[in-house]
Fold:
Amino acid sequence: MCGIVGYTGSKNAVPILLDGLKRLEYRGYDSAGIAILGENDIIIDKVAGKVEMLSRKIEKKHYDSRTGIAHTRWATHGAPNDINAHPHLDCSGKLAVVHNGVIENYRSLKIYLEKKGHQFYTETDTEVLAHLFEEYYKGDLFEAVREALLNVEGTYGIAVIERDNPGRIIAARLGSPLVVAKGEAGEYFVASDVAAIVRFTKDVIFLEEGEIVAVDAREGIKLADIKDNREKKVEVHTIDMDLTEIEKNGYPHFMLKEIHEQASTILNATRGRLDAENGDAILQGLADYNDFFRNVNRIILTACGTSWHAALIGEYLIESIAGIPVEVEYASEFRYRNPIIEEKTALFVISQSGETADTLAALREAKRKGARVFGICNVVGSTIARETDAGVYIHAGPEIGVASTKAFTSQVMVLALIALYLGRRRDYSLSQGKNMVREIQALPEKITELLQHEEDVKKIARYFRKAENALFLGRHINYPVALEGALKLKEISYIHAEGYPAAEMKHGPIALIDENMPCVVLANDDDIMYEKVITNIQEVKARNGKVIAVATKGNKKIKELVDDVLYVPFTVQALTPVINTIPLQLLAYFTAVERGCDVDQPRNLAKSVTVE
Ligand code: AGP
Structure:
């Protein structure tokens, strides 16, 4: 979950590293540090706090160095303070390490190294790596790192520099993402994510699991397998990412920018994938598995967090449109159960980042059991995207706000396409398919219209400003939307919120209702549950609860029953989750802003959870 970046070349490494860290800060932001090669030593500066603090600390020092590594941390072992911040040095101060991941056997390695005389200064698991590399060092850092890593259990993306070998960075990965990039002649970058380096180059090498690389300003790249030291061919990919995609472009926060991008991200998720004539979805990514999908009789969807909410919506969509039984599993639970995978079972893993450790582990466990595993990912070339048999990209573009917004609606959109694709190979009729295609095509315009009313949501955020608790209620396909609305509010405004199926409220949560607890109820016109939801609203009102309804534009009657209404354009029930989620995202956003919270970097969280 931490971000690492390294640079070697002819330019001053310091501004490049700081810029890279800033762009990786979504991965973790509790402390930051930098290590650069000085004339005769390694210079380290690190601080508790954000990258901005680090920049301010070193600003006046006017460092100038051709090689360095840097880190922004999300603490796992040891409090987020100056000492535990990366980089970490060995005893002699001749090498420095930054690390993303968890060294699971660090305790036994530490005991072993202490017995050998190594002195430890931090509470981190990472420091053992610095000492272990020192222990194995016999004049060649590449070999020392490689051999030492054979003794390491856990996950790592690392970058290491050496005092006596300027111009060289050693990097390796297992279970944590890492890319290497080529800049101008003799210039190399190492980073957790391409966002850190796209300003400088688009020529990227995606490190595979278990690979180690040396980038050297004079000698070029050497890539090998950690286990057997077999040298490997370097494959350079040109990435398709524009700098504007990872900048705020005038918005105060990435989250607001990403909420506003949803008309175009929904369009991108469906572009070239709709067959209006046949009322069908065209999913090239699954084309090689057409026969398999024709006979699939069970689907498992697995994911974490917001992506898990999308999976729950996927369950409703696939079961109602394609008539195939679907199970939804938290990836963190799936991996430790003994899931039954049969020949005709398809498993979809859903992940924005494509790097979530639990989701990746679930994928690997399913593959080990012989399952056909398909991905629904955003980040192109991510580990999950590469390890699945096939899949469908959601094409939402980089999502930088820690709270997932546009990726969620695009995941739902792709799940609707998958449902349509499976349904049209079964009993979903041509006219039903054509109607669904038309409704999907109409969505971007409806989203644009919806976003023009964000001021209405801003006003309603006042109910939430002082709230300590909030309830989100929905039924049927909008129950997961209620879960997502609650998660968004929790994540960024720190208000305790719960999502519930509206009818379940009377089995417990109704006890919480009073005039201080706002209750958001999803009540679209087309919902087959509309009348039932109205009854649930009455139940809340009878207990002095404050109700904010999300209802279909034109429904005037509902206004008489509730305290406030957020109107959304009409769409068919299957697509209401896409439309309904947007006001809930805005509500969480404006509430967090009102409460003075750090919207893009909420406390304790990180965008991409690469530890178990
Ligand atoms: C979303 O707002 C969250 N920050 C989080 O729940 C996220 O959805 C989860 O960690 C899964 O991430 P992924 O989609 O990248 O796998």
Q: What stands out?
A: The radius of gyration is 25 Å. DSSP finds 18 helices and 26 strands in the chain. The mean pLDDT is 93.
